[in-house]
Amino acid sequence: MTSGLPSTLGALRSAAQTGRVPRRPVKDEIRDNLIARLRANQPIFPGIIGYEETVVPQIVNAVLSRHNFILLGLRGQAKSRILRALADLLDESIPVVPGCEIHDDPLAPLCSACRARVRDEGDGLAVTWLPREARYVEKLATPDVTIADMIGDLDPIKAARASLQLSDELTMHYGLLPRANRGIFAINELPDLAGKIQVGLFNILQEGDVQIKGYPVRLRLDVLLVFSANPEDYTARGKIITPLKDRIGSEIRTHYPETRHHAMAITAQEAWLDRRDGRVDIPQYVREVVEEVAFQARQDSKIDKRSGVSQRLPIALLENVVSNAERRALLAGETAIVPRVTDIYAALPAITGKFELEYEGELRGADNVARDVIRAAVGNVFGGYFASADLRQVTEWFDLGGTLQIDDTLASKELVARAAEVQGLKDLTSHAGVRPNAEAPVMAAAVDFVLEGLYAQKKISRSDEFQYQAAEQRRAPRPAPEPLERDISSLGNKKKYYN
User: Fold this and answer.
1) Rounded to whole angstroms, how far apart are CA atoms 108 and 118?
2) CA separation for the pair 187, 143 (Å, rounded)
């Protein structure tokens, strides 16, 4: 016995007869462990946010029904993560015949080699224990996958070395599916799998067995098959053939976060925000604007909705926003890293690669579309914070010809000092939850939020060079500002003029 587990076939047989080691098909094993979690009111998929009332109940029903199932959804909807989390519903370990490629059960081996070992060694046959993480097998479907990769093939080299006939069962080379025996086999992007390979999955889905290269031997595998697919792939790159779809027990649709609250929780969980060179303090409104960028992009007519806008966009965006704030803090010698709304404009590289454009968007350009989306997001979030605020004092200051020049590398204390010239501007920061005596980086971020919000709602205007002017005062554009000592326009480091 090792760690209290049987180490020989005889000991395993005794433990199985007394019920100390349960013997059950993998679908029953997962089902029983799921039932135990439900009764204990434990989370089914820890870390999966926003699916508690939609996707998770459907997966639970599929598992309780002992179904093979498929997750359909656009990119970035946690499909692969859910499939991998299924492995946590397996037993901690199971007994296997040592060295067997298909993890044969010592009490009921499938392959002839294991049957021969059991016959020859009897109750003295050594037993090893396979951990749950080794029982999950995943394959990304690509057009070059062959039936030998998935199911198996005969191995002439093995036959020659062992002096066996090619018709001998011992010459079989097992593919990924047989190697997932007594576990979970997941296929990502199923439509990319060639039709003839999909046909090879028919038997395992319906009859529970596979046949390798015409051998008269059929392997009755014990496996849960799960799949993922993007609905657009049915027409863009391939399709799931109808007979295969008919054999998949449940088809479950995933979706993007339905609320900003869920989206923020996902991003906070996934984004890398730790910085060793300073304390990161991300204002709540910055987090909301970052998430709102994704929500606005998903409904923008210039962005392809069929392709989707992944939840990876706000994750990468927030990381980039924090990095731009970190760069500013390093240049200014500040220890607190407090992102501002304008840092989002400096993080365009984290946005433009995350969506596909429609024809109208192609004409406008990815950068311009991204800026439009950011502006819409800022306006939406700003409206929630300042719905009851009186903005007239600030807008009138600009209407009277006031000018405010800042840039995203400006030190926090300097920004706050310049903002003090604008009547009523600092007072408005209280609507963003900022105290009058807040430290300079926090106050600077709030002032920046107010200015960007006024611009987003067209209460003040702004030139391409971030020169802001009164919204109703269409004056001739001011001369362009003197260039900085180094060309940093591509990073979003442009001077901003509020008029």
Assistant:
1) 9
2) 13
How many Å apart are CA 56 and CA 370, to the nearest integer? Answer: 33
Q: Which residues make beta-bridge pairs with 433?
A: none
Distance CA 499, CA 83 (A): 54
How far is residue 484's CA from residue 299's CA, in Å, rounded to a whole number?
Answer: 37
Query: What is the Cα–Cα distance from 177 to 145, expressed in whole angstroms?
Result: 13
Note the pLDDT tens digit of each residue in 95-146: 999 999 899 999 999 888 898 999 999 999 999 999 999 999 999 998 888 8
Q: How many other C-beta atoms are found inside a 10 Å radius of the C-beta of residue 222?
A: 21
Domains of the chain: 9-253 (3.40.50.300), 260-498 (no CATH)
Decide: 241 and 201 in contact? Cβ < 8 Å.
no
Would you state the structure tokens that stand for residue 488, as one six-digit string?
């940093």
**Secondary structure (H, E, C), 20-59:** CCCCCCHHHHHHHHHHHHHHCCCCCCCCCCCCCCCHHHHH
Question: How far is the C-alpha of 405 from the C-alpha of 413, rounded, in Å?
Answer: 14
The tokens describing 114, both together, are 């294991």
Burial label for 309, CB within 10 Å (0-12, 13-18, 19+), is buried
Phi, psi torsion values for 441, nearest 5 degrees: -60, -35
At a CB cut-off of 8 Å and minimum separation 6, what does 137 contact?
Answer: 176, 179, 180, 183, 184, 185, 186
Helix axes 440-456, 412-419, angle to 10 degrees: 60
Q: Are 208 and 164 in contact (CB under 8 A)?
A: no
pLDDT per residue as tens digits for the range 387-411: 999 999 999 998 988 888 888 888 9
Please give the Cα distance from 256 to 78 (Å, whole number). 9
**Secondary element (H or E) of residue 467:** none
Euclidean distance between CA atoms 140 and 186, whole angstroms: 8
Query: Would residue 466 be called left, alpha or beta, if left means φ above 0 and alpha means ψ between -120 and 50 degrees?
Result: left
DSSP state at residue 190: G
Assess contact for 34 and 64: CB atoms under 8 A: yes
Phi, psi (degrees; rounded to nearest 5) at 312: -65, -20
What are 292-341's pLDDT values in tens digits? Answer: 999 999 999 999 988 889 999 999 999 999 999 999 999 999 999 999 99
CA–CA separation, 67 and 56 (whole Å): 15
DSSP state letters, 351-380: HHTT--B-HHHHHH-HHHHHHHHHHHHHHH
Task: Indicate whether this model's pTM tops 0.90.
Answer: no
Distance, in Å, from the CA atom of 294 to the CA atom of 316, rounded to the nearest integer, reads: 11
Q: What is the C-alpha separation between 212 and 215, in angstroms, rounded?
A: 6
Report the alpha-carbon distance of residue 327 to residue 334 in Å, rounded.
10
Instruction: Round to whole Å and give the CA distance between 220 and 178.
Output: 9
- Both tokens assigned to 344: 């989002």
